[in-house]
Automatic annotation (TrEMBL):
Stored InterPro entries: Aminopeptidase_N-like_N (IPR045357), Aminopeptidase_N-like_N_sf (IPR042097), ARM-like (IPR011989), ARM-type_fold (IPR016024), Peptidase_M1 (IPR001930), Peptidase_M1_aminopeptidases (IPR050344), Peptidase_M1_dom (IPR014782), Peptidase_M4/M1_CTD_sf (IPR027268)
Entry's transmembrane regions: none
Domain Aminopeptidase N-like N-terminal per the UniProt entry, residue ranges: 82-269
Enzyme class: hydrolase
Cofactor annotation: Zn(2+)
Region (Disordered): 23-47
Organism: Hymenobacter lucidus
CDD domains: M1_APN_like (cd09603)
Protein name: Aminopeptidase N
UniProt EC number: 3.4.11.2
Family stated for the protein in its record: Belongs to the peptidase M1 family.
Pfam families for this protein: Peptidase_M1, Peptidase_M1_N
Peptidase M1 membrane alanine aminopeptidase domain ranges (all copies): 307-515
Biased composition (Polar residues): 23-32
Length: 864
């Protein structure tokens, strides 16, 4: 699964840098005794636990102790599910019959318990030799407990037929930040009253929500084959797992499509989608590869999804396991409760990322491509082999996350892969400021808590280190062993470790223990010196070893002398450790972790000359970025500004972007030349992201008029660039551009819509108030948080008597929206108005009092 708050990175065609000649040798730890490790002073806001012998500082990121969450006990095996379903769109009900084939797992059973949430049960029957008989059962609206006609052994299967009505909208609303709904089955615009939105129906099973629309054993360690007959109005297309084996027109104007998957998969991976879709056909190795989109996006579907066959080929060859399922389809759906979902052979994906106009594609391919790779890789890691419990979720999500780097590396080169590595590491480290959990978490409060940047971003970085530890050949051979040994079954972390150990012959318990089973990450301080023909490097691990291990870190250090690079392999094992190796003269640069592989927060001491040398001799994007970032505070120096001007012409767009960010508010001696360079980039860079950043950098120069540049950029082919021009004009509006900005009010672009809201929040008046209200329904859910606050800011400048409709809309969103970020945005917008409308205080207090989400209540308290 790709959840919507994850950042997706730009992947672009890059030129490979030519690495200089190098030699490799191994360093030995110095015999010099390391300095004693210093204890840092505790932060003032951290709680302190005292004992008779010591004082323990409990860090703010240490989560509370949660209950143990073991894998579900398997009492009964779910072997096969056959569903016959039709839909009442007006009532948003599913009318179904389910035939389940089951068998006791080991111990004899005379009873079976099934998950079935919020059903009306009409009958439960045993099917034997074509005959049916009623069975006694109990039902508590969550589970059906069925009393069988006799005791069955593990060699005997039986079939139960259940007639039922599923009423997902009558279930208590739930969800999380990652998956914002948990009712399993969703009717979109069911009555057709919204003329701007198609009627659709789709399902979302992860984590355990498919039992909201069919009875099952809703646990990830179950596996079943399946067949689903869907009866729908004839104009609609259907999609489900497996192959469409029949399609029959009915006398009442409906059609019944039957989809069958002959390979077993976990129940949460079952899906349905119904809607007015255009189906764009592709293929790979004789298997259908189809893209389901709304008809008006049929023309761009292959541009969006067109790399799928190449991905199928790449991943199949890399893993040595050919894509296992009968077909592969991807369907773009409205109002999805997540980013995308890896249902076996039929991925669902949010339409905002995939239904794009040709102009939107100039900016958005970087969002879709990583997601497409991510969900496809799940077809092996998550579907073919499935984590046995949600505690083991990284066995699904870490691999899917890492596939984004693998694809970027293969398709676009090493620089693009390093950009993925950088962004993912930063996302994990940001989350680690507030919580640090083991990757494999046997304690959690809620299942959805597992869907975080630990399971995704940290997990992917741990896999990258594992790849570097064993080498590429061993890494992919180990993955092949893991997949083939555990195919069509549930797995846990020990099985992955065993696959690597059996392949490599190494005992890797140390690696799996410190990276998968323990929380946190290394926090390193690295210094080096040169004397008497030797380089001495000191590596200190500064993390609090009360809660985080002292890590074993195999890492490469590169020593540059003139243009010659020598790689030295060291293994850090202590809290404070020094290493030495010979060098014939003082190096130009000594670079710790020169491969950029470590999942760590690293402070590495380097002089300005060393960082300049690093930039000009860098092997990779990350090394160039490090040099640029490390010299941000010295941009006024001619040598540094010269480096940044050089970076503006780099082959890789992210280097150019980094240089532009470093040049914000530049005040050095090359002011005119640098402004000229930035204007050139804003007007002519081939990458829209870079042109947009250049406009943002120009807007940081106070009291300077770049309105001519912004005016031209309003007509840019890229929405991202035009939006950046509006953002720049927000800070420095001009009379000449006001009408041109107003002319964009009916835009279909979410990017322009967000920029206009920002512009009007500071420069608008009562004239724009109805525009905010009217366009609110057109704003993608991910953008509503900022849009609503901009709306609140605008309302502070209009008469209080005019605000009633806006306040009502904000109140409804703050009370009822499914997405907690939207609720928070609406609440903050209302809070903005309190100063001028004190009567809103009781309303905000009431919203806070009735809010059930504890995280939201905490945010609300901070605002008061």
């Amino acid at each position: 699964m790709k959840y919507s708050v994850l950042g997706i990175l730009g992947l672009v065609l890059t030129c490979h840098l030519t690495a200089p000649a190098q030699s490799v040798k191994t360093a030995k730890p110095s015999s010099q005794k390391p300095a004693a490790r210093k204890k840092t002073a505790p932060a003032a806001d951290l709680p302190v636990t005292e004992s008779a012998t010591s004082t323990i500082i409990v860090p703010s990121w240490l989560p509370p102790t949660n209950p143990v969450q073991p894998a579900a006990t398997i009492v009964t095996d779910l072997l096969d599910t056959k569903l016959d379903v039709r839909f009442d769109w007006a009532k948003q009900w599913l009318l179904g019959t389910a035939a389940l084939t089951l068998r006791p797992h080991f111990y004899p059973q005379s009873q079976v318990v099934l998950d079935a949430k919020g059903f009306d049960i009409k009958s439960v029957r045993l099917v034997t030799a074509g005959k049916e008989k009623n069975l006694n059962y109990g039902y508590d609206k969550r589970k059906i407990t069925v009393n069988l006609d006799r005791q069955y052994t593990r060699t005997e299967s039986y079939q139960i037929r259940i007639s039922y009505t599923a009423k997902p909208n009558e279930l208590e609303a739930g969800g999380s930040a990652a998956i914002t709904g948990n009712k399993g089955l969703y009717f979109i615009n069911p009555l057709g009253t919204d003329k701007n939105k198609p009627k659709q129906l789709w399902t979302q099973g992860e984590t355990e929500a498919n039992s909201c629309w069919f009875p099952t054993i809703d646990k990830p360690n179950q596996r079943m084959t399946q067949e689903i007959a869907m009866t729908v109005d004839a104009q609609y297309k259907t999609l489900s797992n497996g192959l469409l084996i029949s399609s029959k027109k009915n006398a009442d104007g409906t059609r019944t499509d039957v989809w069958k998957q002959s390979l077993p998969a976990a129940p949460y991976l079952t899906m349905m989608a119904v809607g007015d879709f255009a189906v764009v056909n592709d293929s790979w190795h004789g298997k259908a590869v189809d893209y389901y989109v709304e008809p008006k996006f049929q023309g761009t579907a292959k541009t969006v999804f067109g790399n799928t066959p190449a991905m199928l080929d790449f991943f199949s060859k890399k893993l040595g396991v050919e894509y296992p399922w009968e077909k592969y389809a991807q369907v773009s759906i409205r109002d999805f409760v997540s980013g995308a979902m890896e249902n076996t052979s039929a991925t669902t994906i949010r339409q905002e990322w995939t239904q794009l106009t040709p102009r939107e594609l100039l900016d958005k391919t970087y969002i879709t491509e990583g997601t497409i790779a991510h969900e496809l890789f799940h077809q092996w890691f998550g579907d073919y082999v499935t984590a046995e419990s949600w505690s083991n979720l990284p066995l699904n999500e870490a691999f899917a996350d890492y596939s984004e780097l693998l694809w970027a590396e293969f398709k676009y080169g090493a620089d693009a892969a390093e950009l993925v590595q950088q962004e993912k590491l930063n996302q994990y480290l940001t989350e680690a400021e507030s919580k640090r959990e083991p990757l494999i978490r046997y304690r959690y409060a809620e299942r959805e808590d597992m869907f975080d940047r630990h399971s995704y971003d940290k997990g992917g970085r741990v896999l990258h280190m594992l790849r570097k530890q064993v080498g590429d050949d061993a890494f992919f051979a180990s993955l092949n062993r893991y997949l083939t040994t555990n195919k069509f079954s549930a797995s846990e972390i020990a099985k992955l470790r065993i696959a690597f150990e059996e392949t490599t012959g190494e005992d890797l318990m140390w690696f799996f223990d410190q990276w998968f089973m323990q929380r946190g990450h290394p926090e390193l301080r690295v210094t080096h010196s040169y004397a008497n023909g030797q380089v001495t490097m000191r590596v200190q691990q500064l993390q609090d070893s009360t809660f985080v291990p002292i890590y074993r870190l195999p890492v490469t250090v590169t020593t540059w002398i003139n243009k010659q690079a020598t790689d030295t392999r060291i293994v850090v094992t202590k809290a404070d450790q020094t290493f030495q190796w010979a060098a014939p003269q003082r190096p130009n640069l000594v670079k710790f972790d020169s491969e950029g592989q470590l999942l760590a927060k690293t402070q590495e001491e380097r002089s300005q000359d060393e960082l300049l040398f690093q930039y000009y001799n860098a092997r990779s994007y990350l090394q160039k970025y490090e040099a640029i970032d490390g010299l941000r505070s010295k941009v006024g120096d001619l040598a540094v500004s010269g480096m940044l001007r050089n970076a503006l012409n780099d082959n890789f767009w992210a280097v150019r972007n980094a240089a532009l960010e470093a040049l914000r508010k530049y005040k050095g001696p090359e002011g005119n030349a640098i402004r000229k360079d930035i204007k050139r980039v804003a007007a002519g860079d081939v990458k829209s992201q870079v042109r947009a950043t250049a406009l943002g950098t120009l807007s940081t120069f106070p009291n300077e008029d770049f309105s001519d540049v912004y005016s031209v950029a309003l007509n840019d082919s890229s929405y991202l660039v035009a939006g950046a021009a509006i953002d720049a004009l927000t800070k420095a509006p001009t009379v000449d551009t006001r009408d041109r900005i107003n002319a964009l009010q009916e835009t279909s672009s979410p990017t322009i819509l967000s920029s206009l809201a920002n512009y009007y929040s500071l420069n608008g008046n009562l004239d724009q108030y109805p525009w905010f209200l009217r366009r609110l329904n057109d704003v993608p859910e991910d953008d509503l948080y900022n849009y609503l606050q901009n709306f609140g800011t605008l309302m502070t400048r209009i008469p209080p008597i005019e605000r009633e409709k806006g306040i009502q809309r904000l109140e409804v969103l703050a009370r009822t929206h499914r997405n907690y970020a939207v609720k928070l945005g609406a609440y903050r917008a209302l809070n903005t108005l309190v100063a001028s409308t004190p009567s809103l205080k009781p309303l905000l207090q009431d919203i806070k009092a009735k809010e059930k989400d504890s995280q939201l209540k905490a945010f609300y308290s901070l605002l008061q």
